[in-house]
Amino acid sequence: MHASPFAANLVVPAELMASSERALPLAVLLQRSPARWQLLLAWLLSLAAGLWLAAVELYAGWYGYSVRFGELDFVISIYPPLTIATLWVLWFGYAWGASLAYLSTLLVAYLSGLPLGWALLFACSNPLGLLVLSLVYRHVKVRYVPSSLPAALFFVTICFISAVSSATGSFIWSYSNKLSAMGAFAVWQGWWSGNFLQTVLTCGPLLLLATPAVLRWREQRWPQRAAAAPAQRWVGLVAVFALCGVLGFLWLSFWLADRSVAAQVGDTAQAWQQRAMLYRDSAMAVYWVLSVLLFALVFLGYRFFRQRTLQLQQAAQSVAFERDWALQRQQEAEQAHHALQTLNRELAVRMAEVEQLQQQLQEQAQRDPLTRLYNRRYLHERLPVELQHAGHLGQSLCLVLIDLDHFKAVNDQYGHAMGDAVLKSLAALFAGRLRSADFAVRYGGEEFCLVLPGCDIAGAAACVAELQQAYAACRVAGDNGALQDLRFSAGIACYPQHGCDEEALLREADAALYQAKAAGRNCVRYRD
């Protein structure tokens, strides 16, 4: 089905739109563009800043801060390179930020004296957390800029899951440094809580302030096509990964708390009090974290439910629009078909009128306007055809030339109107007494020509004699009196005796007519 214009008007809330910023591939550094040097310089400066801050963080002791929140004691570690790496992941893609995070974390591991193998593995912890962040925002239709309450809650939730995922590096650190269960719990808690708070409190405002400018710079230098819709399997995988991260956080919280409590020695009241406080701190931390997660997930679930409802409504509206559009097109097609039928009928009427006019024109071209007999032009067209037909059938054909006797005297004495009436009366006799195969022609003035196919000289003479008797019996009335006992002379030529073509027959018939005139008129002559 074709694309509907209604689809272009579907509106999706900004906080639930997919991020239109796709990852910028590293291959852009191979392009011949001045912007690649700007990008490479920015990345190298970010790397230098990340390495310097990693070293400062290690030697300045920006880790293991004990923070008291109400009655709870938290351990928080600050790691500034993570902020730089996170911004690169969200603005340009995972490869750009993960490389910064890996190199800066590797520097910390090296300066801390971790063995090379453990250092290489330990450096993957922060890139692992950034991978979660990148996958979620790449395959879930939520913007990473926390410009609205739903987007901010989702950002906080994903930052927490990312921090828990990256905190797996704390176990490598604890194992390599042979820390106790209490120490491992403190390192783990400080890692994820520090990463979580640092990402939320530093990356959030920076994303709000700098994202429009960064994306404009990107779009000017590397315009991108619209991102494709995420595959359903990726969305499901990200959701499962996020759920596993939350469940892993809960399990590690209680497991490390149990290990820490078990590491407490002594049966004094103070020792038991410390155990109880440790359980309380662990339980309260889990409680507050789960409260935030539950609120965020409920709110996001509500928003996604609203979005799904809106999508279904828009889909229904789109289907209704397509239906109405199809019905309208069908109605227009029916109207066009009806209009076409009407035009066809009108065209048929016009064609019939044209054909009738053509026939009228043809009749006017072939007939004499006064007597309505055929004219001389028709004779020249029809006679050769009749001669050819007679030749094929082996039949004879007679051609009769008739001239009215004393017709000039009629015009002079009675007027031309009486002369026209005389001509019409003779034409009427032709129409009533000739056969269907015969035809009469007004040859010119008071001369007429009869073509009698399949007729010999005797038959033609008998036909002419009958016409003479009928013509003599006619009484033609006019304003100046009446005429009767009208006479005409005739000359007959026969095919093939007197000629085989039109010219020969007309010449012979004319000669016979001249003989009839010379013999005193009112008679019939034919050539021997």
UniProtKB/TrEMBL annotation:
Parts of the chain that traverse the membrane: 40-62, 74-96, 116-137, 149-176, 196-215, 235-257, 285-305
Classification via InterPro entries: Diguanylate_Cyclase, GGDEF_dom, Nucleotide_cyclase, Rev_trsase/Diguanyl_cyclase
Keyword Transmembrane helix appears in the UniProt entry: yes
Keywords: Coiled coil, Membrane, Nucleotidyltransferase, Transferase, Transmembrane, Transmembrane helix
UniProt-listed SMART domains: GGDEF (SM00267)
Catalytic function, reaction form: 2 GTP = 3',3'-c-di-GMP + 2 diphosphate
SUPFAM superfamilies assigned to the protein according to its UniProt record, in alphabetical order: Nucleotide cyclase
Matches recorded under PANTHER family: DIGUANYLATE CYCLASE DGCM-RELATED, REGULATORY COMPONENTS OF SENSORY TRANSDUCTION SYSTEM
Descriptive protein name: diguanylate cyclase
Organism: Vogesella margarita
